[in-house]
Amino acid sequence: MISKIEHTSMSTTYENEIKLITRLGVTPNEFEYISNGYQVSIKQQLLQRFFIS
Predict the structure, then answer these.
(1) CA 44, CA 32: separation in Å to the nearest integer?
(2) How far apart (Å, rounded) are the C-alpha atoms in residues 39 and 44?
(3) CB within 8 A of 34, min separation 6: which ones?
(4) How far apart are alpha carbons 2 and 17 in whole angstroms?
(5) pLDDT digits (tens, 9 = 90+) for 1-15
């Protein structure tokens, strides 16, 4: 199933994606960080600036 999703021959729901990420043993935030090449996304940078100020 994961292979089919990776190769876009099968779609999934947001809820199922969260379940799969959790089964990998990471949080959604960690998954986003890893998926972004171990860099904080622009969205996260903006949120950090907003909440730090």
Answers:
(1) 10
(2) 10
(3) 26
(4) 10
(5) 677 777 777 778 889
- The model's pTM is 0.62
Residue 38 binned pLDDT confidence (cut-offs 50, 70, 90): very high
Residue pair 21/31 in contact (Cβ under 8 Å)? The answer is yes
Helix (H, G, I), strand (E, B) or coil at 8: coil
Tokens of 42: 């622009």
CA torsion through residues 33, 34, 35, 36, sign: positive
